[in-house]
């Protein structure tokens, strides 16, 4: 316990780190406020109450009469805006919608109608390598009815079962959750959250090397296995605190603007990032899963930084190498398809991709595991467990092999 307390003081429970933690909390809250700031403009409009009434009245399954009306109004507004500002001014049109809440309702409902159409018929043009929609999936299974032992048949059968179990999309008020789920965006998770983790984890082993205490620790009774255990426990505890602070700041910022958490019990597919998710849960349930997954993925990354620290000589080199890995992995998504097909495990299961729950749980990606479809989420979980075990083992070995100078 004394070793654990010492490690926690080094990583988190000291004045400089706590001040930095408070500053980061303010930054996360302000970022969430800025993301949600367009809602302020909408709430200031005289039509905002009517917007809320329309959303509440039409929440649920698709109303075809309302769809026809909303589609006509939305298309007329779009045509008028394009005639005045041009066809490529989507940002201006979105700003216009937030200044006109009733028009925003009609625009959102028209888009909702398109999503319902895509649920049944798939999107156009159709991608033959990635069939979507209930009817196209049924047609595909019909062509494979004599190949029921094949992986392709099992894959599309599971896709169809998922779509039918999820059911047709519904319309719901999700403004707060759309703002909160920006916390899972790659620009925040990768270029802010993971970098912050790397900075906090960097001195876990290098601190003793820098102040010449490493030799004394290695010669002590508990300088090998026990000290590594304390360090790993402190890393896990620190990551739990940092993740809680990160999501708390984002939640507070979004709630301060929206003033409610409406849509908590709506299907997760109401959210744009999870419109094709295979998980049959609510928006609130997906938020809970996302927080747990991000914490788990952050733990895996933190253990990896801990391993780097066990071999490095200074915290600067640890932080620098961590940034290199973050930047390298984050750019892998831009590689050509030919290269992607050759190194897809590294692209699909690197530390950056694993930290993005929208990619892991937001789609229908599956892998061929011994002829059976394995979901991206389950495959990612297995990889994370394996990476954690490997990094922990290598960290213990690194400390065991260190020599006293």
Could you explain the architecture of this structure?
With 405 residues, this protein is mainly alpha-helical. It folds into 2 domains: 263 residues, no CATH class; 107 residues. 71% of the residues lie in helices and 2% in strands. It has 21 helices and 2 strands. Strands 1-2 form a two-stranded antiparallel ribbon. Strand 1 and strand 2 form a beta hairpin. Helix 8 packs antiparallel against helix 9. The model has no long low-confidence stretch (mean pLDDT 87).
Task: Provide key terms for this protein.
405 residues; 2 domains; globular; 21 helices; two-stranded antiparallel sheet; mainly alpha; 2% strand
Structural class: mainly alpha
Low-pLDDT stretches: none
- Helices, by number, come to 21
Number of domains: 2
Query: What is the H-and-E element order?
Result: HHHHHHHHHHHHHHHHHHHHEEH
Distance between the termini: 27 Å
Strand count, sense and barrel status of the largest sheet are: 2 strands, antiparallel
Give the overall average pLDDT: 87
Number of strand elements: 2
Give helix % range. Answer: over 70%
Q: What's the arrangement of strands in the largest beta sheet?
A: 1-2
Rg computed from alpha carbons, rounded to a whole number of angstroms: 25 Å
Beta-strand proportion: under 5%
Specify the overall morphology.
globular
């Amino acid at each position: 316990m004394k070793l654990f307390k010492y490690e926690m003081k080094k990583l988190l429970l000291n004045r400089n780190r706590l001040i930095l933690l408070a500053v980061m909390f303010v930054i996360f809250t302000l970022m969430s406020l800025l993301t949600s700031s367009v809602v302020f403009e909408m709430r200031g409009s005289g039509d905002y109450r009517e917007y809320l009434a329309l959303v509440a009245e039409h929440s649920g399954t698709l109303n075809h009469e309302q769809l026809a009306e909303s589609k006509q109004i939305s298309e007329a507004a779009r045509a008028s805006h394009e005639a005045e500002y041009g066809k490529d001014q989507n940002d201006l049109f979105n700003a216009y919608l937030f200044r006109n809440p009733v028009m925003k309702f009609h625009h959102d409902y028209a888009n909702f109608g398109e999503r319902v159409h895509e649920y049944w018929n798939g999107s156009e043009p159709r991608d033959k390598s990635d069939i979507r929609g209930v009817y196209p999936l049924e047609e595909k299974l019909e062509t494979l009815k004599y190949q029921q032992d094949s992986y392709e048949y099992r894959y599309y059968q599971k896709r169809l079962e998922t779509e039918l179990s999820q059911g047709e999309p519904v319309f719901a008020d999700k403004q707060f959750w759309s703002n909160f789920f920006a916390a899972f965006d790659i620009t925040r998770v990768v270029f802010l959250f993971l970098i912050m983790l790397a900075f906090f984890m960097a001195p876990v082993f290098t601190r003793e090397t820098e102040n010449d205490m490493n030799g004394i620790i290695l010669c002590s009774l508990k300088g090998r296995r026990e000290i590594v255990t304390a360090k790993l426990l402190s890393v896990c505890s620190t990551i739990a605190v940092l993740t809680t602070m990160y999501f708390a700041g984002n939640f507070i910022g979004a709630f301060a603007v929206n003033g409610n958490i409406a849509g908590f019990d709506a299907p997760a597919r109401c959210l744009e990032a999870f419109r094709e998710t295979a998980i049959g849960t609510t928006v609130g349930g997906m938020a809970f899963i996302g927080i747990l997954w991000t914490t788990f993925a952050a733990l895996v990354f933190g253990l990896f930084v801990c391993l780097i620290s066990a071999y490095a000589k200074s915290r600067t080199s640890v932080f620098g190498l961590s940034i290199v890995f973050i930047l390298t992995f984050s750019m892998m998504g831009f590689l050509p398809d030919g290269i992607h097909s050759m190194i897809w495990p590294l692209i699909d299961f690197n530390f950056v991709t694993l930290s993005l729950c929208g990619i892991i749980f937001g789609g229908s990606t599956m892998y061929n595991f011994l002829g059976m479809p394995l979901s991206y989420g389950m495959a990612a979980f297995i990889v994370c467990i394996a990476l954690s075990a490997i990094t922990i083992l290598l960290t213990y070995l690194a400390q065991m092999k260190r020599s006293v100078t």
